[in-house]
Design a protein that fits this description.
Blueprint lengths: L1 H201 L1
Length: about 200
């Protein structure tokens, strides 16, 4: 009986020891759970903080991405504008080169035309000098001829005047010749009449 009691007591002690050991393990587990909870809360807080930070970074990244997208779109538009301006500049350069080529050709043509005009001007100058010399000669000849003409005209007028004078003298002589026989006849008749009377008186 005592043996059973002892065994029961021993078993109770063993169970009590196991219960205490289990209680310690439970306490340890509780402590571990609390620590795990605390650690989990801390991890959760850290994760929450990291999540908020990540969300903030994500929002900033999205803003930066939107900004970069706008900048990229602006850059693409600017690149397209630059490409269009380059095409326009190349076209203007091509037109400028064409215009320059035409201008150079026109310049060469003008230089040739200028040479031709200078040559023509020299020829005209020589011709003008020749014509001036000829004109001066012609004017001198004209002056001489005019002088000779004036002299000849004066001589002709003098000769005409002499001829007129001579004609006047001849006409006057003719008149005198025609009038002289009449005068002689009148004188004769007068003489005859006067003579007969004289003679009769003397008779």
């Amino acid at each position: 009986m005592e043996k059973d009691v002892a065994e029961a007591t021993l078993a109770a002690q063993q169970w009590k020891a196991k219960a205490m050991e289990m209680e310690e393990q439970v306490q340890l587990l509780r402590q571990t759970v609390e620590e795990l909870k605390e650690s989990s809360n801390q991890v959760e807080r850290e994760l929450e903080s990291q999540l908020q930070e990540a969300l903030s970074k994500l929002a900033q990244t999205e803003q930066d991405n939107a900004k970069l997208t706008r900048e990229l779109e602006h850059f693409r538009k600017r690149q397209a504008q630059i490409a269009a301006e380059r095409v326009s500049s190349e076209e203007q350069l091509r037109q400028s080169r064409t215009s320059l080529t035409i201008t150079e050709q026109q310049k060469r043509n003008l230089e040739l035309l200028n040479d031709m005009l200078e040559k023509r001007e020299r020829e005209l100058s020589c011709k003008s000098s020749e014509l001036e010399s000829q004109l001066e000669g012609a004017l001198e000849t004209y002056a001489m001829l005019r002088c000779e003409h004036d002299e000849q005209k004066q001589k002709s007028l003098e000769q005409i005047q002499r001829l007129k004078d001579q004609l006047s003298e001849i006409a006057l002589d003719n008149q005198l010749q025609h009038s002289k026989p009449n005068n002689v006849m009148i004188d004769s008749e007068a003489t005859a009449t006067g003579g007969g009377g004289g003679r009769g008186g003397r008779r």
